[in-house]
Design goal:
The complex is a heterodimer of chains A (about 300) and B (about 350). Chain A is mainly alpha-helical and about 300 residues long. Chain A has helices at about 1-35, 40-60, 60-80, 90-115, 140-165, 165-180, 185-210, 220-235, 240-265, 270-280, 285-295, and strands spanning about 130-135, 135-140. In chain A, helix 1 (about 1-35) runs antiparallel to helix 9 (about 240-265). Chain A starts with a helix and ends in a 12-residue tail after the last helix. The radius of gyration of chain B is 20 Å and the shape is globular. The chains are: A mainly alpha (about 300), B mainly alpha (about 350). Chains A and B meet through helix 4, helix 6, helix 8, helix 10 and helix 11 of A and helix 5, helix 10 and helix 12 of B.
Chain lengths: ~300, ~350
């Protein structure tokens, strides 16, 4: 039981870290630009496909990952240049519709280019296998590396946002973008940087999971909804909120799925428990979100106070 | 921006941008629209492919759903991204009742409306506390919640869905099996929903709703608490969408969680905006355009959604007032043309 708990907690942590990588970009784009980007999930998917392709071309996962990152960054900038920058002044409904259109376009484009069938690549030899984490208990090394990479990114983001000039502009932009612009900062360039950065982080998350999940055109949809839940719980625009909420959602979802039915068996017949468990566990995080929003309508770490 | 975050969509941007509300259709246009639907079966009896009757039925069903969404989106500025959940609730009300031997359509409709009202009240109470982007996302999450509930309910088909043995009965008679009867039943319900929502938007209730859409602060200042009005509208819209769901289940004789995916909700928003929001008829037009486009594009290529996406992006970036706006503009141009001739 302890072993299962540790394993599932690590799984939850890894899932949460992944959610954070995608959510960080989304929450920044929301917070600073007040822009709702439904196409953020497909940027995650594109990252995974880029990693697969470059891995196949170069024959090495690390080289593939290294090329996929700037490629994802460039792709984000391209989308920003072609479509998104025309939408910053529009209302949220227009943004929802146009980015929904972008999802449809990229879905089909990926199907045309790579086919609809799931693709998978192998974990590189050097980092496959598992290592002991607690006594005899072993855990896959690759998943531990994902957790480590995610935490490194989180620390990097913290330093960037709190201790650099760009970060200062970012924070200023999040609290009052027109004022920052009036003070002589090129707000359009700041928007572009944020956008590319967000796309790259989502792409990084997609590339990291390429070896452990199947890469398919609709892999971004599920994660998009989950990241929405994450940033709404964390408070839109708050990186710290996104980090905490991502871990919370990852852990609640993973632990709920494995321990929910077990806990229910204490109160219910085994058959009823498994049915109720199967019904309730996928809804758990949405119930969590509804509960948090019912108490705090602007999330755990609201950015815009005074409104 | 701080005040902006308080209105239901956070719309503080200049109304010159984006897709705006357009003038509602006049009585002549309405007679044209519904007359066209009423006369279509005549055309099929004169040799037009009967398949068009099936498509037209589908258009009217989604017309009801889009109309109900327009009621809260166009008049109340509530961008609900989980509206498809209500369609699913209606469809499952038929499926679940039928699997327990209750086949009467009116009874099923009653179940559907009651279930949709219950779901609407609970989700509305929570989501209407939030504003702007939060509202979009929390409705999205509730939609997903309903979707996952039905996916995991293996007693009622789960992921595979439920096949209905027969269509529902009306007063104990299997009238709905007749496609022509079903067509006119759908048309009658579409007309009822239209007249109902039109009356609601024209009433004092509708004026409060529109006032809140335009400026929630001012409505508050003149002594209206928008919340009960918004909640009522949200619940009514959900019940109408559930009506569409009962019809959809009967037409396909199949119920599945696929009816309630978030993509379906996105398509509904698309129908409303493309058709012209805040007009009620726009929803019906949008449903027609969307479904005909789907039919047309999918005959070319399996990648038809690519074309749909491109059209959508172009409409948002360059269109004004949607299809409905185009019609109104054309109508205006024609009027100018003819009145110009008169003067000569």
């Amino acid at each position: 039981m302890t072993n299962l708990l540790v394993i599932q907690a690590l799984n939850g942590l890894q899932f949460g870290i992944l959610l954070f990588l995608v959510a960080a970009g989304l929450t920044l784009v929301f917070g600073v630009m007040d822009f709702i980007n439904l196409a953020h999930g497909v940027q995650y998917m594109v990252g995974a496909y880029l990693a697969v392709t470059f891995t196949q071309i170069t024959g090495s996962f690390f080289a593939g990952l290294l090329i996929a990152l700037p490629a994802a960054f460039a792709f984000g900038l391209l989308l920003e240049f072609l479509i998104f920058r025309h939408l910053y002044d529009r209302d949220h409904l227009d943004q929802v519709l146009a980015t929904f259109g972008v999802i449809l376009i990229l879905h089909e484009a990926v199907k045309i280019l790579w086919g609809a069938a799931p693709i998978s690549i192998a974990i590189p030899e050097a980092i496959s296998g598992s290592i002991p984490v607690l006594g005899q208990l072993r855990y896959p090394l690759y998943r531990l590396l994902i957790i480590a990479a995610g935490i490194a990114v989180a620390i990097g983001m913290y330093v960037l946002v709190q201790h650099t000039r760009t970060g200062m502009l970012l924070r200023a932009g999040a609290s009052n973008a027109p004022m920052v612009s009036a003070l002589g900062v090129d707000i359009r360039r700041l928007f572009m940087i944020i956008f590319g950065l967000g796309a790259m982080l989502a792409g990084f998350a997609g590339a990291m999971v390429a070896p452990i999940l199947s890469v398919e055109p609709n892999m971004g949809d599920g994660i998009l909804i989950l990241t929405f839940v994450v940033i709404v719980i964390g408070g839109i625009g708050s990186i710290r909120g996104a980090f905490i909420a991502a871990l919370l959602v990852g852990l609640v979802d993973t632990l709920g799925r494995s321990f929910g039915p077990i806990l229910l068996k204490i109160f219910l017949e085994p058959a009823a428990a498994s049915q109720v468990g199967r019904t309730l566990t996928p809804m758990l995080i949405y119930i969590l979100m509804a509960a948090i929003l019912a108490v705090r309508p602007a999330g755990l770490f609201p950015m815009r106070q005074g409104s | 921006m701080a005040e902006g975050a308080k209105t239901a969509t956070g719309e503080t941007r200049s109304p010159r941008h984006g897709l705006r509300q357009v003038k509602a259709a006049g009585p002549a246009c309405l007679a044209c629209l519904f007359g066209l639907f009423a006369a279509l079966p005549l055309a099929t009896s004169l040799g037009v492919d009967p398949f068009y009757l099936v498509i037209a039925t589908r258009i009217m069903i989604f017309g009801i759903a889009a109309l109900s969404l327009d009621f809260i989106l166009g008049y109340g500025a509530m961008v609900s991204f989980g509206h498809a959940a209500f369609i699913g609730i209606g469809a499952y009300a038929v499926g679940i009742a039928a699997s327990h031997g209750v086949n009467d359509f009116l009874l099923q409709l009653l179940f559907a409306m009651a279930a949709a009202a219950a779901f609407g009240v609970v989700t509305g109470l929570i989501s209407l506390r939030t504003k702007g982007v939060y509202f979009i996302m929390i409705t999205l999450a509730f939609g997903q919640m309903a979707y996952f509930l039905m996916v995991s309910l293996s007693a009622y088909g789960g992921d595979d869905g439920l096949t209905l043995k027969t269509r529902s009965t009306l007063f104990g008679q299997a009238w709905l099996e007749n496609d022509l009867f079903f067509y006119y039943l759908v048309l009658a319900l579409l007309l009822t929903c239209f007249l109902l929502t039109q009356a609601a938007t024209a009433s004092r209730f509708g004026r409060v709703l529109r006032g809140t859409r335009d400026n929630a602060e001012r409505m508050n200042a003149i002594g209206f608490d928008p919340f009960p009005y918004q909640l009522t509208a949200y619940v009514i819209a959900g019940m109408l969408a559930a009506t569409a769901g009962t019809l959809l289940a009967n037409q396909a004789e199949f119920v599945s969680p696929a009816y309630m995916t978030w993509q379906r909700s996105g398509e509904l928003i698309m129908m409303v905006v493309v058709g012209g929001m805040g007009t009620l008829t726009g929803g019906i037009l949008g449903a027609a355009v969307f479904l005909l486009l789907e039919e047309f594009l999918s005959s070319f290529s399996q990648y038809w959604k690519l074309g749909l996406g491109i059209i959508l992006v172009l409409i948002v970036l360059h269109g004004k007032g949607g299809i409905h706006g185009m019609f109104v503009n054309m109508h205006g141009m024609l009027v100018n043309l003819f009145s110009g001739r008169d003067r000569r």
